[in-house]
Amino acid sequence: MTEQQNPSELAGAYVLNALSDQERVEYERHLASSADARREADSLENTAALLGFDAEPVEPPASLRADLLAAIATTPQLPRQTATDVSDAVATPAPVASSAATPQQQQPARPTIVPAAPGTKAATTRASSTKAQRKAERRWYTQPLAFAVAAVALVAVLLGVNTVTSALNNGNGLTQALQLAQINAQPDAQRETIKLTNINDDQRVVATLVWSGDLGQSVIIVDGLASLPDEKTYELWYINDEGPVSAGTFNTSGNGDSWRILDGEMGAGDAVGVTVEPAGGSEQPTTDPLIVIHTAA
Amino acid sequence: MLVLVENAPGTESEIGTPSSTLEDYLGRVAAGDQQAFASLYDLMASRVLGLIRKVLIDHAQSEEVAQEVFLEIWQNATRFEVGRGAAASWIMTIAHRRAIDRVRASQAGRDRDVKIGIRDFPTAFDEVAESAEISIEHERVSRAMANLTEIQRQAVSLAYYGGYSQSEVADILSVPLGTVKTRLRDGMIRLRDELGVAS
């Protein structure tokens, strides 16, 4: 049959998992013999993954997480691949060969594969931040990981290929988006999510703060926060022992979503608060904060 | 989204960033770090379960499969190949494979109305209650899907979300198997190009 003469025809069905076991084995044999075919299959596999992300997220029950964490504690991992494995052959033709060829086992892959935003201080800070990083990690690990998965996924998506689109859709500029990416890329980047219920409309509000102590910057992402009429605005505050310092204003879209980089410099341990203020913002808060996120350990 | 971009020189700074977090976790998971596994789970669980659920429909089975998927991630993290795409893509690929395995294994899966696959695309996008960013992704994928031919779109959708094999897709659409193969491939290539996935 023609399909056997031209196995590359099966690339689409392969990445969509639409082959029978036997067909798959045959196609994988073809893959093993052709770098071009592997490249195509990889790119189509990544495309299929985007279709996967398009499925509506479903929050798993907490028991699933607990079961898994218990299970992995006693489940051995496979040994690492050897240099003769197919991975090397696959990696070679790709433009990222240099980073791909780096064994992934050592540290986080980040320094090799992800340059920081050009001209930023991310790269320079990174080298000298091991102490902060250790501290951050210690804190990270000792905190209960009670993140709102949806909100964090939202950060991830937001920072994705669509950085530009998202930025424009949020009414934020590209600069803001790049800044956000930079904050999130810091080795000491941390997140804290809080969930609240708006007593007026029972709407659930999720607010996530992502911050980097090294950069002294933070970004807030809110979901479900009612949008304010024109004469009012949400105002952000860095709060410490010396009181609140304004960190800019924002409003939410019709469906209550927004994000923004906070103005000014974040001090270590500053809390971040959100109040409702008259349009244009206030020097000092005139209402009690709706949201307060603590960043101190 | 997070996937692909390491292969696109010049754009890494914006795009590679988020996946690096996930890749960091995966790197640490490969070294046996259970906390990193918990973090990776927190980032990906709703996406993994969302995909499995879409394919399997059945709630309880979906959770079982999600558990298998995360165990597999734990066991196989040592085999993750940095050069071949981002961690997110690797994880979603495992999730899809296991979901499909389950569909094939259980006859229950076969009882699903064939129409599930077909109607999926048009209607799936009418659901609201999502965060803005997810909607934007949605819109991008949906626009890319809209640019496929009818048969490409149906074939890709039946295969990926419906879990049908290429032969089953051929039966459902009443077209020759050879046509399905071609449409699945050129459909995916078109999606890849529309979505800006590096090839």
Quick gist of this model?
Chain A is an alpha+beta fold and 297 residues long. Chain A has helices at residues 2-5, 11-15, 21-33, 35-53, 62-72, 86-91, 97-101, 110-113, 122-127, 130-142, 149-158, 163-169, 174-185, and strands at 190-197, 204-212, 217-223, 232-240, 243-250, 258-261, 271-278, 291-293.
Task: Give an account of the 3D structure.
- Chain A is elongated.
- In chain A, strand 4 (232-240) and strand 5 form a beta hairpin.
- In chain A, the strands form 2 sheets. In chain A, strands 1-2-3-6 form a 4-stranded antiparallel sheet, covered by helices on one side. In chain A, strands 5-4-7-8 form a 4-stranded antiparallel sheet, with no helix packed on it.
- Chain A has helices at 2-5, 11-15, 21-33, 35-53, 62-72, 86-91, 97-101, 110-113, 122-127, 130-142, 149-158, 163-169, 174-185; strands at residues 190-197, 204-212, 217-223, 232-240, 243-250, 258-261, 271-278, 291-293.
- With 297 residues, chain A is of the alpha+beta class.
- In chain A, 39% of the residues lie in helices and 19% in strands.
- Chain B is mainly alpha-helical and 199 residues long.
- Chain B folds into 2 domains: 1-121, Rna Polymerase Sigma Factor, Chain: A (Orthogonal Bundle); 122-199, Arc Repressor Mutant, subunit A, CATH 1.10.10.
- Helices cover 73% and strands 0% of the residues of chain B.
- Chain B has 10 helices and no strands.
- In chain B, helix 2 (34-56) packs across helix 4, helix 6 packs across helix 8 and helix 9 packs across helix 10 (177-194).
- The longest helix of chain B is centred in the N-terminal third of the chain and has 23 residues, at 34-56.
- At the A-B interface, helix 2, helix 4, helix 5, helix 6 and helix 7 of A face helix 1, helix 2, helix 3, helix 4 and helix 7 of B.
